[in-house]
């Protein structure tokens, strides 16, 4: 499918309809067609963007918080106005079902609205003086030039969740989006410029050589903060590289989210929570339920009900309004899922639903429910990033907590129970930055998003998200008496 004039009006000057040097193709995973070609930037472009951001910093941070807020609100309005075009871009280049892509756009826009308001609440404080004639206070100031590296699975909201608080705080930003989804990123960037974000305050670097861009971001002393969402190995490498210049960092890395279902759970609610958590974006989210721990007394009923519910979900091209599950991002992702499922089945797991690559194409994998899974199987310790729900049986609450916490990751966790005492206990005991109790969809712009252990550092969203881009300065005034 060719891009429409509406899309080209947003991002056209970065594109080439035909292959040529210095451009890379953007592939529709649903059918393998080339949507367009995008300018492939280099380390030199990244350094130039940092120089622009550094030059623009004083003027941008020197504006009033309200002035920056007005621009962010206008950006939010433009995104809402262009929501359908943006959703179509997401579906075309990432495969996500159009009904979900619309939600991704509105979710992304919500961070602009939230941080437009939070910009006016970057409060310092007055501290009681220690002696006559002294005045003690703190103020909050922008960190400085920031770099952001964003993933393909939420190509709009992962940009706005980083950029909105940074701009609200008075920082300038250089973004490196995923090369899998450059069109959504370019469209959001163009709308930012139309909203009034000044030249140099925000730049975008689309590039296929991600390590070279990352090296520029980590090595340049003008960059005072790096925010990265992606894999744990890459995050660790960036963390180490930032040590030389002691940058501030936000890292949202891999997950291995447990989903606990106790005997006393509301079965229907648990199944719907599992659908929302596991199969959203065809299982390609960092907070997807990755391991389903189901208590013995409800195990068979839950497995049967989940399989029946999964059977109602249509797999297909995301542009079809009836589609619930689109393709995975590429054939490599499908092969990873296939290896994990085949390995589990070879060790005794049973695919009561799915378990195969779809006849629809190389990027489609059938929604799958596996029973008889054990913690010894690779699928129980590897982030699946696909539409597969592996069910592991447990007997006691302590068993469930022990198995759930037996991972180096700690991004999200979920539990279903109608026992309020148990709910309080497990929420405290689960080693995770975010916990959903009887809730499979926990993301919102109002709350802090982030993990513990090897799932990352820092928080995005909520009032905490603004603090990530602010430095606290303590000032002591004397001689005032």
Automatic annotation (TrEMBL):
<dbReference type="GO" id="GO:0004777">
    <property type="term" value="F:succinate-semialdehyde dehydrogenase (NAD+) activity"/>
</dbReference>
<comment type="similarity">
    <text>Belongs to the aldehyde dehydrogenase family.</text>
</comment>
<dbReference type="InterPro" id="IPR016162">
    <property type="entry name" value="Ald_DH_N"/>
</dbReference>
<protein>
    <recommendedName>
        <fullName>Aldehyde dehydrogenase domain-containing protein</fullName>
    </recommendedName>
</protein>
<dbReference type="GO" id="GO:0009450">
    <property type="term" value="P:gamma-aminobutyric acid catabolic process"/>
</dbReference>
<dbReference type="InterPro" id="IPR016160">
    <property type="entry name" value="Ald_DH_CS_CYS"/>
</dbReference>
<feature type="domain" description="Aldehyde dehydrogenase">
    <location>
        <begin position="22"/>
        <end position="475"/>
    </location>
</feature>
<dbReference type="InterPro" id="IPR016161">
    <property type="entry name" value="Ald_DH/histidinol_DH"/>
</dbReference>
<dbReference type="InterPro" id="IPR016163">
    <property type="entry name" value="Ald_DH_C"/>
</dbReference>
<dbReference type="InterPro" id="IPR050740">
    <property type="entry name" value="Aldehyde_DH_Superfamily"/>
</dbReference>
<feature type="active site">
    <location>
        <position position="252"/>
    </location>
</feature>
<keyword id="KW-0558">Oxidation</keyword>
<keyword id="KW-0560">Oxidoreductase</keyword>
<dbReference type="Pfam" id="PF00171">
    <property type="entry name" value="Aldedh"/>
</dbReference>
<dbReference type="InterPro" id="IPR029510">
    <property type="entry name" value="Ald_DH_CS_GLU"/>
</dbReference>
<dbReference type="InterPro" id="IPR015590">
    <property type="entry name" value="Aldehyde_DH_dom"/>
</dbReference>
